[in-house]
Amino acid sequence: MLEVNSLTKRFSGLVAVDQASLSVAKGSITGLIGPNGAGKTTLFAMVAGFLNPDGGSVRYDGRDITQLAPHVRARAGIARTFQIVQPFEGLNVQENIAVGAYLHTADANEAMRQAAEIARRVGLGADLAKASSDLTVAGRKRLEVARALATKPKLLLLDEVLAGLNPSEIRDVLPLVRDIRDQGVTILMIEHIMQAVMNLCDKVYVLSQGRMIAEGEPRAVCEDPHVIEAYLGHGAAERLRAEQAHA
Amino acid sequence: MYSPQIVVEALLNGLMLGAIYALIALGLTLIYGVLHIVNFAHGALLTVAMFMVWLACARYGLDPYLAILFVAPVMFALGYVLQRFIIGPASHGKDNGILLVTLGLSIIIENALLAAFQSDTRTITTDYSFRVVELGPLLLSFPRVIGFGVTIATTLLLWLVLHQTDIGKAIRAVAKEKLGASLVGISVPHVYAMTFAIGCACLAVAAGLLMPSFYVSPKTGAAFVLVAFTIVVLGGMGSIPGALIGGLLIGVVEAASSLFLGDSLGQIGIFLIFIVTLLVRPTGLFGARA
Amino acid sequence: MTRPRLTTLAIIVVALAVVPFLGLSGALLNLMIFMMIIALAAQGWNILGGYAGLSSFGHAAFFGAGAYAMAVLQTRFGVNAWIALVIGIALGALVGAFIGFLSFRSGLKGSYFALITLAFAEVARILANSWNFTGGAAGILLKLQTGLPYLQFADRRYFLLVALGFVAIGLVVSWWLEHSRFGAYLVALRENEQAAQALGVDVFAVKMKAIAISGALTAAAGCLYAQNYLFIDANVAFGSWISIEALFAAIVGGSGTVLGPLLGAIVLLGLGDLTKSVSGGIPGMDLLVFGIILVLSVAFSPNGLVMLMKSLGLRAPAKAKEA
Ligand SMILES: Nc1ncnc2c1ncn2[C@@H]1O[C@H](COP(=O)(O)OP(=O)(O)OP(=O)(O)O)[C@@H](O)[C@H]1O
Ligand SMILES: [Mg+2]
């Protein structure tokens, strides 16, 4: 469904993403993990069309979309959420979601109806008339997801939708993500919370300092010494193994 | 066609008028660089300063250059009060709010002056208003030569203030990292107001330099406002050397285009530069990338 | 959000239409006509500055395009007034598209957009002032010919009705914005351009449509101005006064609301007229008052009079519009 081939992005000297490749199978939940500043969000931005890559290509549904504008990609079925939530502050929850729904209908009543329905699905059913600025952190994350869902995407890019939520909120959102996939939406998600990654993902990619350093089953990837070192620093894998041997 | 001497003279005089433009733009770009706001009232504040200089000369018989010494502190105080107690609080820190509040202020000032002084243009004559300086075969306007010199001196002074004094360092700290500066105990509203005040004091100097060879009416500043913005955008919003070079450049362009196109069409050259710069290179010739 | 019903709008328009027939003095009638012209210009400004959040400081460019089209077409080419009106409005949309194409392609917004629109209007003013075709600095005098085909009326109440008709169109356009996808997209890009793009909004195309509609409405105001006063010059048609009054009326009344521009125009010009008569001929007093009102309204009622009245009046519980 999605093929990312050696994407590269430089920010004046800093190589934020360095020839990273990944592929997402249709109907899967694929994870993208990596330490802070690894370049995950930058990679997402290139997939969704918000940043122009300095090299490499993005293929979606069999065609090259590297040069397409973000709104064209959205119309082709790619929706993203923002790590730093970006609600339309002046609009209430229902109106926020309706902006997404308008992608497939020009009718205002229909868009508002769909928005209400999606709000219920993500658990915002009681907050339809709330100003988006009055939502809690968890509420805003749900709103991000709801707006993206309203565009009826085929591929959903979720950027840390669980960050900042407490454990019980996370437990509420996990089934939602799985439910979205079960409705036929392919998902690529950035996540720091390993419990969620283990729980949800069919396949995981690990990005570190812009490079893709590992891929595979979640469990296997987590035991990969390269990955442990990327997260915990040089020599960490050695120490961990030694500790486990002692235990 | 004009003789080369006339053209060179016109361009040199333009260059020196450009220096005064640069001084006006200097305050604007400083305010933008630190407060990140477009001060739409800058032109109207220039008019205020020019009226003060005019009053000092016409009523109290002061020399316009000497008047700068009195007008600058008054403008400084006015700038401080305006930013600290009106622009800052009224705009709620929103860009659009600032744009509208400063626009509102410019209209208030312009029309208050109109109510007080009517729309007549006023001039002051000094015995050097029309004196010329001979530079080899070239004749240069004396007030403009003075203007050029004082502008360079003021720019250097500003640079020293920004780099050598405590308030200058605070200003640069706030410009770079507002949050960080406030965390180490710098009062951001105070620094904002001081910056605005310095920008207004620059206007007082510009007013003193302009008056011997120019006139003032309540609308005078409005004519300068787009010129000043052009310079600021051309030089890169927030860049002080950019404002200096941009000002000189615009002075020359204006001189050339009014020489060849006539006075009224000559203004168009400036606006077109403004439009093209905004469209093609909004960071200006010297500005860092936004 | 405040969303008046169509019936409310109809009642307001009918009430305004009845007023002149209740025996208004000539001066008040003239003031009312002027209010409608400014209201229309402000409605145009509001589409772009209010709903789309792109504050223009140069709506004079559109106003002047309409005014000059009206004057030049009639005096130089003998075009019928109504046809000139239509062409003037179209020209306003075209000028909007031109300025929009250049500015939006370069991604200008905020203060940059405000400044560039101002510069465009100034260029237009200087050109109109020095070009013989547009009458140069002397301006253009339109011929006095009363009768419906000439869009001039011996009884000026009928001209007021025409102006009011346009304001009604402006109200309906704004009302439609608040009930349509296009309007939702405008507000979305005002609030967050990136998020709008992520949801499939073609930001450039939406802005282009907005500036064209905005230009057309304000140009219509310019057309009516020329036809009402029968004289224009560059400073009247392209002068910054009209950019400022359009913006003031919309913001003071309530930017991004249906009734804001109309309310703002009536209140501002009413107060301005009052100030003029109280201050007795001191120049600039009305504009001084405008400036103070603008600063006060940004400071204390950033959402305009419409919202102020709403929050002072019955505070209806917000309810979601579920279908
Ligand atoms: N617009 C930008 N300009 C300059 N540098 C940037 C820009 N955006 C990101 N960076 C830098 O690129 C690197 C990668 O950032 P990115 O946000 O993609 O990381 P991330 O993996 O999403 O991190 P996190 O887990 O903290 O969200 C960082 O060093 C960041 O500072
Ligand atoms: Mg990130």
What does this structure look like?
The complex is a heterotrimer of chains A (247), B (290) and C (323). By secondary structure, chain A is an alpha/beta fold. Chain A has a single domain (2-246), classed as P-loop containing nucleotide triphosphate hydrolases (Rossmann fold, 3-Layer(aba) Sandwich). Chain A contains ten helices and ten strands. Chain A has helices at residues 40-48, 70-75, 93-101, 108-122, 137-150, 167-182, 194-200, 218-223, 225-232, 236-246, and strands at 2-11, 14-24, 29-33, 55-60, 63-64, 78-80, 155-159, 186-190, 203-208, 211-216. Chain A has a six-stranded mixed β-sheet, with helices on both faces. In chain A, strands 2-1-4-5 form a four-stranded antiparallel β-sheet, with helices on one face. In chain A, strand 1 and strand 2 form a beta hairpin. Chain B is mainly alpha-helical and 290 residues long. Chain B has one domain. In chain B, 75% of the residues lie in helices and 4% in strands. Chain B has helices at residues 4-35, 42-58, 64-90, 95-117, 142-164, 166-176, 178-183, 188-210, 220-235, 240-261, 263-280; strands spanning 122-123, 132-135, 138-141, 215-216. In chain B, the strands form two sheets. Chain B has a two-stranded antiparallel ribbon. In chain B, helix 1 crosses helix 9 (220-235), helix 2 packs across helix 8 (188-210) and helix 5 crosses helix 6. The longest helix of chain B is centred in the N-terminal third of the chain and has 32 residues, at 4-35. The model of chain B has no long low-confidence stretch (mean pLDDT 88). Chain C is an all-alpha fold. Chain C has a single domain, classed as Orthogonal Bundle (ABC transporter involved in vitamin B12 uptake, BtuC), CATH 1.10.3470. In chain C, 72% of the residues lie in helices and 1% in strands. Chain C contains 14 helices and two strands; from the N terminus they run H-H-H-H-H-E-H-H-H-H-E-H-H-H-H-H. Chain C has a two-stranded antiparallel ribbon. Chain C is globular. The two termini of chain C are 17 Å apart. In chain C, 56% of the residues are buried. The model of chain C is unreliable at 314-323 (pLDDT under 50). Chains in contact: A-C, B-C. Chain A binds chain C through residues 48, 50, 69-71, 74-75, 79-80, 82, 86-92, 94-95, 98-100, 102-103, 105-113, 116, 128-129, 147-148, 150-151, and chain C through 1, 179-181, 184-185, 187-188, 190-192, 194-203, 318-323. Adenosine-5'-triphosphate is lined by residues 11, 14, 16, 34, 36-42, 83 of chain A.
